[in-house]
């Protein structure tokens, strides 16, 4: 009988080791294919052609609930994009601790994002797999949200955006001024939609090789964002008609970058000059991504043309 119990225990341990590889059996943040959080993508379809080796899909989970999705690169310690459904915030920006993703360390860790500080017994593993607070300390970069808290309704939704797996190194001139203005513009368009607005916001790396904070966190050369509003009011004012059902933008994150993608306004004030944002069609953004990422990119299935 004792021999049989030992065999059962061995079998159970083997099963537990295998469970993380079968997404349908395990609920957690790290996913093979975003299967737990496809509702944050239009038609439940993540961007096509934009994933690459080394990236990990994360279903961003806080307080036992999924809030958005991110495609994350362990070695670059930064996300390539975050996807979410836009809603107007019902309160102020939360004053909460920054968080990290335990399942980047191990599937046996908590499926919910956790606040810093990291427990000492896993700190080195967390630091190996993702950015930590010390990476941004005394750097010239701010912590730039891909999914901004102002685009999330509830306190839990807004709190969940404060994970470093939703953050990229962003120059203050972009984060606090020009890109912030774009985020507010997009939020104002919510009133014209009859249903959800699907947003994907991401980054473009440097073509000539990665730029780093402290040789650890990859710095993007450009920010980009696009939204899809598949069902909108039929009597749109002429002034906003060009912005539906889709619209997009690319923003500079380096004053010294060339002007092929985003021109520089020489008349901008000192704080904003060189961090310009170029508004454009979804097709134009996808064309730029095709060139920069050397892949055929589709952000929204069917160009978001099928009304729901």
Description:
Mean pLDDT is 89; it is low at 1-28. The radius of gyration is 20 Å and the shape is globular. A hairpin with a 3-residue loop joins strand 9 (211-213) and strand 10. Strands 1-2-3-8-11-12-13 form a seven-stranded antiparallel sheet, sandwiched between helices. A two-stranded antiparallel sheet has the order 4-5. It is built from six helices and 13 strands. 40% of the residues are buried. The chain is α+β, with helices and mostly antiparallel strands. The chain starts with a helix and ends in a 15-residue tail after the last helix.
Main beta sheet strand tally, sense and closure = 7 strands, antiparallel
Strand arrangement within the widest β-sheet reads: 1-2-3-8-11-12-13
Q: What's the count of strands?
A: 13
Estimate the global geometry from the Cα principal axes. Answer: globular
Helix fraction, binned, reads 10-25%
- In angstroms, what is the radius of gyration? 20 Å
H/E series:
HEEEEEHHEHEHEEEEEEH
Backbone structural class? alpha+beta
Strand content: 15-25%
List segments where confidence is low: pLDDT < 50 over at least 5 consecutive residues: 1-28
Give the end-to-end Cα distance, rounded to a whole number of Å: 60 Å
Mean pLDDT, all residues: 89
Quickly count the helices.
Answer: 6
